[in-house]
Design goal:
alpha/beta; five-stranded parallel beta sheet
């Protein structure tokens, strides 16, 4: 049966392509690419002659059936401008439709700007929350940042260079002073990783060029404030299974533990 290969491509440096990805791109009968010009640069660099068709944000629905029809007889590779298709790039709809029709979807992993930035940030990597691109509009951006102000996991977001200064100011206003890494043009000639506080980043960056990834420390633990622990979460789950209402359970444990009801409610909502 024909296969849809979801192929990661370099985020900058063309040498960051896997041997498996090169083999797959040579062997498939068609490559569906977000930007055919960028993909042809990669293919030319490795002397790959496979035909390429466009599959981008503005034609992804119109081209969907044509690519699915091709998958009835041939293997197809899906690639984006950089990194893994379907992650802030076209591909989700095609992948979902292939899965629904029983067409095998095979990942060919490789470079990822999210994981690359996180790895070199110097911040905690055990847990992270990926936000995608921050909203274009200031009000929406501030609402998003305010909604995750209590998140303990490291935050990772993409940003356009012309909005960087405004977004950093909003991060400082919504999240307060934290550690941050501003990663610019990763793996490219002008690669830069700035590590410091948010206020230092605000002072450092005005106009910027290139692709930007922000890695922001999660909310720090307040040593004087009771925290939601795994044991308390287990108690909440046991109370829920027993039929106790959320209001009763939260009131009981808030009095016993001192943990804020907002934190307890977050634990209440977690799946058992």
């Amino acid at each position: 049966m024909p296969v849809l290969y979801v192929v990661a491509t370099p985020i900058g440096n063309l040498e960051d392509i896997t041997l498996r990805a090169l083999r797959v791109l040579r062997e498939v009968r068609l490559i569906a690419a977000e930007d055919t010009r960028r993909t042809r640069q990669l293919l030319t660099a490795y002397d790959i002659k496979t035909p390429v068709t466009s599959y981008h944000e503005h034609n992804k629905l119109a081209k969907l059936e044509a690519i699915l029809a091709r998958l009835e007889r041939d293997d197809v590779a899906l690639v984006s401008d950089a990194g893994m298709p379907g992650i802030n790039d076209p591909g989700r709809e095609l992948i979902a439709e292939c899965a629904a029709r029983g067409i095998p979807v095979v990942p060919v992993p490789g470079a990822s700007v999210v994981i690359t930035a996180l790895a070199v940030s110097g911040l905690e990597t055990d847990r992270f929350c990926y936000l995608g691109y921050l909203p274009n509009r200031a009000a929406a951006r501030r609402r998003l940042l305010t909604s995750i102000a209590e998140e303990r996991a490291t935050l990772v977001a993409l940003e356009a260079p012309h909005r960087l200064a405004a977004s950093l100011a909003d991060v400082l206003a919504a999240l307060g002073e934290r550690r941050i890494a501003v990663c610019r043009e990763l793996t490219k000639v002008h690669e830069e990783v700035f590590r410091g506080t948010v206020s230092q980043a605000v002072a450092r960056f005005g106009e910027a060029k290139g692709e930007i990834t922000l890695v922001i420390a999660g909310r720090p633990v307040d040593p004087g404030k009771p925290e939601l622990t795994a044991d308390i979460e287990r108690q909440l789950q046991a109370m829920r299974r027993s039929g106790m209402s959320a209001r009763e359970a939260l009131a009981k444990l808030a009095g016993e533990t001192g943990v804020a009801r907002k934190e307890l409610y977050r634990g209440w909502l977690k799946p058992a």
